[in-house]
Amino acid sequence: MSDDAAGGAPAAPEPAPIVRAEGLTKTHRGEGAPVHAVRGVDLTVRPGEFVAVTGPSGAGKSTLLHLIGGLQRPDGGRLWIGGQRVDTFREARWAVLRRRSIGVVFQFFNLVSNLTVADNVELPALLAGASPKAARDSRAELLAELGLEGRERAMPGELSGGEQQRVALARALVNHPALLLADEPAGSLDSKGTREVLRLLSRFHQRGQTIVMVTHDARMASAADRVISFFDGRIADDAQLGGGRREKPGGVSRVLDLKE
Ligand SMILES: Nc1ncnc2c1ncn2[C@@H]1O[C@H](COP(=O)(O)OP(=O)(O)OP(=O)(O)O)[C@@H](O)[C@H]1O
User: Fold this and answer.
1) What are the residue ranges of helices labelled H in the chain?
2) Are 107 and 185 in contact (CB under 8 A)?
3) 35, 188, 232, 234: residue to mutate for ligand 1 pocket, most atoms within 8 A of CB
4) Which of 14, 83, 101, 121 has its CA 20 to 30 A from that of 161?
């Protein structure tokens, strides 16, 4: 009997997962023997989750993250972002999707070295169609939030590693992406920088940001609410770290609103 027939309120529909992968496969084919980096991965990430992907070097963690962000193409399997099938997308459609809905931070920040901090953060907003004023306002808000007020006119090379990673975070978050992907975001930082990145990721997560983070660092992983152990291209373990799933309306509606 349904809830309705029983007289109770109908169950709320499950929000679409932010990420859903089925049988995702990627083999790198270079000079030598092919490397089966991702071997048939099934994965669902729900709105508001903070998922850490850990595992030994070469396990395929970064490749998996790159597939989810459309930075590499799978050879097989299917992938949905916010309910939309994306593994068939060509680069131009991926670029639009990433701009609007997926923020990415890398170990080595990847800031544009000849643009100021302010321009690095505003650029993705402008590319996504924000007005110059809206881009400036979002940039100012984020830089203040990330403790970078007063550094707007600095060039990336004048900043510490920790500061550069905070600018990279601001750039990744400026379009309020439904999904934040982070590949070893503290991998090149000292312990102070690591703590800072961890604190900021946790804060954004508390506000509903969905995050998938690749990390070697057990302390980083322990900030997540779900830890996936990746081994030899497959998910070896998938553990919830208590606290359950968190859902915040912003993340859900944003991802369901994906339009091109
Ligand atoms: N572009 C590429 N061409 C060829 N082989 C690749 C390429 N990218 C990754 N690989 C290989 O695929 C395997 C998985 O690499 P990947 O970087 O995804 O692993 P990882 O778990 O993230 O490792 P690490 O923690 O060391 O970064 C490794 O054997 C790696 O050498």
Assistant:
1) 61-68, 91-101, 117-127, 132-145, 161-173, 191-206, 218-221, 249-256
2) yes
3) 35
4) 101
- 């590949």: which residue's tokens? 183
Average pLDDT, integer, range 42-59: 96
- pLDDT of 217 reads 87
Reduce the DSSP state of residue 17 to 3 states and report it.
coil
What pLDDT score was predicted for residue 85?
96
238 class by beta-carbon count within 10 Å (0-12 exposed, 13-18 middle, 19+ buried): middle
How many CB atoms lie under 10 A from the CB of residue 137?
14
Q: Which residues pair with 104 in a beta bridge?
A: 181
53 Cβ below 6 A of ligand 1: no
Q: CA-CA distance, 55 to 119, in Å (whole number)?
A: 36
233 CB under 6 A from ligand 1? no
Dump pLDDT digits (tens) for 113-155.
Answer: 999 999 999 999 999 999 999 999 999 999 999 999 999 999 9
CB atoms within 10 A of CB 42: 14
Q: How many C-beta neighbours within 10 Å does residue 145 have? A: 16
Cα–Cα distance measured from residue 49 to residue 208, given in angstroms and rounded to the nearest whole number? 8
Round to whole Å and give the CA distance between 259 and 241: 33
- pTM value? 0.88
Given a contact cutoff of 8 angstroms between Cβ atoms, the answer to whether 152 and 138 are in contact is no
